[in-house]
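#struct-pred

JT: dropping the chains for the assembly here, can someone run the whole complex?
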Amino acid sequence: MEGEDENRPASRTGAVMDAIRRRIASRALAPGERLPSIRAFAAAMGVSPSTVVEAYDRLAAEGLIRARPGSGFYVAGALPLALAAAQPPVERAVDPFWVSRQSLDATPDMLRPGCGWLPADWMPGAAIRRATRALLRTDDALLADYGATRGAPALRRLLARQFAAEGLEASPDQILLAASGTQAIDLVCRFLLRPGDTVVIDDPCYFNFQALLRAHRVQVVGVPYTAEGPDVARFAEALAAHRPRLYVTNSALHNPTGASLSARVAHRVLTAAAAHDVKIVEDDIFADFEPEPSPRLAVLDGLSRVVRIGSFSKTLSASIRCGYIAARPDWIEGLIDLQVATNFGGPSPLAAGIVLGTLSDGSYRKHLDALRGRLARRRRDVAALLGGLGIRAVTEPRGGFYLWCRLPDGRDGAAVARQAMREKLVLAPGNVFSVTQTAADMMRFNVAQMGDPAIPDIIGRALRAAEAPA
Amino acid sequence: MEGEDENRPASRTGAVMDAIRRRIASRALAPGERLPSIRAFAAAMGVSPSTVVEAYDRLAAEGLIRARPGSGFYVAGALPLALAAAQPPVERAVDPFWVSRQSLDATPDMLRPGCGWLPADWMPGAAIRRATRALLRTDDALLADYGATRGAPALRRLLARQFAAEGLEASPDQILLAASGTQAIDLVCRFLLRPGDTVVIDDPCYFNFQALLRAHRVQVVGVPYTAEGPDVARFAEALAAHRPRLYVTNSALHNPTGASLSARVAHRVLTAAAAHDVKIVEDDIFADFEPEPSPRLAVLDGLSRVVRIGSFSKTLSASIRCGYIAARPDWIEGLIDLQVATNFGGPSPLAAGIVLGTLSDGSYRKHLDALRGRLARRRRDVAALLGGLGIRAVTEPRGGFYLWCRLPDGRDGAAVARQAMREKLVLAPGNVFSVTQTAADMMRFNVAQMGDPAIPDIIGRALRAAEAPA
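RK: done, full complex below.
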């Protein structure tokens, strides 16, 4: 079969398709009418019957004609006008969804220093292609079947070994693969939370935590985040005052601040959580950007009340969706039921296989080594560039691609972001990260998305155009 | 880069890995100790430095050693005992999760007439490989980036054209791609339901609807399903009595009965739903198995109160996860926010690209044509085979792979399924589909999974061993 279609001159198939399209457009063939038989039309067009078959197939896939098995091809109904009508973009408040939707749906002419991922050409395309091609040489089951409920066993074994090397003992059966880190957190929230519960988050924190927790209909309490983790006194107060069920955080290269948890703070957070029986989701998706592992709640706690979340969206590919949960065995059983109920089975076995391939052949490690160096240089250069605009990075992250910065003269980040959007530049204003709305003059910059030389001027103009503070 | 690793003799890399493994096992290299330098060990082993680099990389990926950038490789901590300990399988009640988990986690020696999908070798492996290889020749963005929030535009345009050909007018912007049909339904439930709401389902219906709705903490009311759809009188009564917010159903090739909705019933269902302002989820994942489209609620209603759900898991691949939602524009906006919040972005752009490839080049249509004929023959043969065991199909489906059957002498399906499981045969007993538990003597058979000649004898023994009715 392979290559069968490629060897047929595309122009001949296209000519047959065009001929049919013209007849339909001119109503020489009306909706519902039967198309010429394959043999007759091949003779009329001077092409082989297989060329006509392919042309009809493609037109059927487009919906212009329809196949009726055993009866031939027929002209489909008229296309709805709606197909042609583009919808105007939605004007939205600068809320936790603002950055996500502006970034994900950006057109190719937009620049995205506000987004939360690396440019595609920073990702290991060659390694992904190699791993995918290797999978295509394996059996049909991997390409066609549902996976096991926990997800690919070989990838879970590899992750368990990596955790062990880090001092975290977990059996591969304590790891559940999911479609993404976010979906993994969502599953844990579904398992641990009831509507009306209270959840503690960092202030500031990843804006999508607020969006996600809103979907779970829970109350959210913010605790100030410092350069070495949450403010431990305020954390303990919040636990005593609000009796939360859960604390959701990033420990390493915290989003948006780039800070990392210290051992001292980690220990105190766990002690307070134990005193009030609070569970913890430690979202560790930036782990692989660290030069050396910093303290982790999951490692100290040993997956007793802490759940580890990971994914490969930031370091390998966001197109190949694969995240994971590491948790207590009894929780994993409950999480599997929930994942079966809400997604039928785990993540794509093909996706897990591609991830496994790049992790096993060393290409992932090599990519990370190069990436860490490149990002360190870029953080330094972008901090200098922003400094020239009066924008000051308030932390010096040990890895990753974020700089958490203060705007000059108390400028309002949302106003600056709205101005920048007029010049097709997506920014991430501070208050989308702050549940208490106390980061109005802050902004998160993605250093890897700052390469375009037009960016500093646009930011400068947006700063000037944004209303001056009262 | 391509092929670089493949050209290096695997045996040499393996020999280096084995040498390191032996030293670690014998404690000649203790946890935390630095490994020999690459150059020194290459000389000692008589191999090239690149072979040692690869061996170290692979050992690092396994977690046995760790790379410290700029410093070399170190032996990781001891492996936890838990890695070796296999957990015993969980003994579960025969509930809505029973079939899912037994089927998804079946070992290769198990037979699965109870499962809900085709064998891998019935799926179009060559077409999937061709579509995937074509994508690997495109740019890095598709392999590495998040997709747009609605999912791949080209696939949504193609679906909109197919819907138009069927008489369903929908703009591509009214289509939202999701990771699977189940995830799509879950998203719609999140959008439309509040805890404590009531939802109407068919009795019997796909068992996972019950599991999914349980996760949403809603009440469920069953309406008897007939050979042409829900019992319309009972449906109207249920709407008046329980004031449900939602009705969840399959219209074409209903799971498990294989029945299809008639135009008469479809009209009455919509009229009753309008009178009580009930929304409808029409899960259409078996649509492509039909020889000709049967009446659809979404087409009659025009996506006003009906949401169409589709996926390619049953007809193309369950490994390449891609489903979709077609709904009103204002609902789609809300669903996008929810999908961003709970899964960050849509389904894998790679997955959507593979689906688009097989749909565009005609290979999907050819596969379906062949599949329909093969399944028709198989349904006939399996019905005869089951008849010989006293098991009678109660409907004659016009497509698909299910037969909904009555067991002889009022045998209890759950008891038969438990007996069959002892011989590694997964069955789908009737009551897992019935919210009122009124299908005890029924069983759903997947005709495509009945090819193994051992199956009739195992079923016969299970029938005899299952306790006779009181």
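JT: nice. Residues 96-115+369-465 of chain A form a domain with the Aspartate Aminotransferase, domain 1 fold (CATH 3.90.1150.10). Chain A touches chain B through 121 residues (CB under 8 Å).
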